[in-house]
Specification:
Oligomer: single chain
CATH class: Mainly Alpha
Number of helices: 5
Order of helices and strands: HHHHH
CATH topology: Cytochrome Bc1 Complex, Chain D, domain 2
Strand content: under 5%
Amino acid sequence: MTRILASAIVVLALPLAALAADKSITLPADHPYGALKPGPSVEIARIYCGVCHSTDYIVMQPRVDAKQWQALVTKMIKVNGAPISDQDAKTIVEYLASEYGPVK
């Protein structure tokens, strides 16, 4: 009885495994508008911010100072649960304030 049940499970699982293997999603390329400006630590910002949202969200933000970027990054960590260390958060804020701060 156990052997029959095990055989039945294998027979039923094989087609399901084949179907799951065929499933994939290809995302479109990012729009050039959302590309982050080159600068120190751009890759850290791209990696950590890009875990939760596209970089369009950064590019479209109003040009704010470091204090406001700090508040936004802190919100992402404390409210949204972004897994960013204190040092990486500081680095991200420095990048954002430098490249997306007020126009001088």
